[in-house]
Design a protein that fits this description.
alpha+beta, single chain, 3-stranded mixed beta sheet
Length: about 70
């Protein structure tokens, strides 16, 4: 759901309750400036979103080396 900053100010309680079940994006002048979300978001949703971000043929050692090369 996307709302304006003015709408958030006018109905903060409503959107705090709504944020428990879905993300609320706050916009100003048509641009997203913030996201209101629950701190208790389902951790499995996070894991599912990350699944596949590392190719299956990359070993743990290769991933470590690549991470250390960026430092």
């Amino acid at each position: 759901m996307s709302i304006t900053a003015t709408e958030l100010k006018a109905n903060l309680g409503k959107y705090l309750l709504l944020a428990a079940t879905e993300d609320v994006f706050i916009t100003r002048n048509g641009k997203t400036i913030a996201k209101l979300t629950s701190p208790y978001q389902n951790k499995l949703d996070i894991v599912d979103s990350l699944y596949g971000s590392i190719p299956a043929d990359v070993t743990l050692e290769e991933a470590r080396e690549e991470r250390l090369d960026r430092i």
